[in-house]
Amino acid sequence: MVALATATGAAGLLAASTLYNAGQPDVVSLGRGKASVETIPVAQFASADSVEGDQLTPMPSPSASSMGSGEASYYGSSDGFAGRRTANGEVFNPQRFTAAHRTLPMGSRVRVTNPSNGDSVVVRINDRGPFHGNRVIDLSYAAAREIGLIHAGRGNVRLALLT
User: Fold this and answer.
1) What is the pLDDT of residues 120-156, one digit of tens each?
2) Fewer CB atoms inside 10 Å of the end CB: C or N, the chain?
3) Cis link prior to 130 (omega < 30° from 0)?
4) Domain-by-domain residue ranges, the chain?
5) DSSP H or E run through 58
6) pTM
7) pLDDT tens digits for 11-48?
8) Residue 56: its H or E element
9) CA distance 145 to 112
10) Which fold has domain 64-162?
11) Burial class (CB in 10 A: 0-12, 13-18, 19+), 104
C-alpha cells in the first residue's frame, strides 16, 4: 500500500508511507496543524511510464505546494555536526542535499529557492530544527552552497513541498 497524507491549511501535504490501516485515516501531528494519512492501493497508480497504444506516456513531473518563505541557515561545514546522528537516525553528511525542519515528516522533499539569485535545490528532510531565531529551515552545507547562502551564512528563501 502507498499512503497519501493531506493537510488542511496553506501548504497541502502529500507524503508516501507504507502503513496499512484498514481504510481508516491516521492523524499525524504537524506542529500546529494535523494531517490525515489515507491508504491507496498501489494498483491505482500507473507505473513510471505507461504505454497507450503505440505511444509511451511519461510519468508527470512532481508538483509542488508552496509553503511560503522565511529565513534559512545552514549547518555541518565545521561546526561538529558531521558524523552525528540526525533525528531520523541516519548519520549526517554535510555534502548531501538534506535539511532540518520543525514539523515536516521525515523524508519529505522540499524545493528551496533563493529569490535573490533564482537558484534552487531539492532537499530531503532528515532532521529537526532550526532551533534559533525565526528561521524556517536549516540546510546542509552542500544545499546552502548550491543556492548561494554560504557567504552570508543565512538568507531568505522560498519553500515548496514536492509531491
Assistant:
1) 999 999 999 998 889 999 999 999 999 999 999 899 9
2) N
3) yes
4) 2-45, 64-162
5) strand 55-58
6) 0.62
7) 333 333 333 334 444 444 444 444 434 434 444 334 43
8) strand 55-58
9) 12
10) Barwin-like endoglucanases (2.40.40)
11) buried
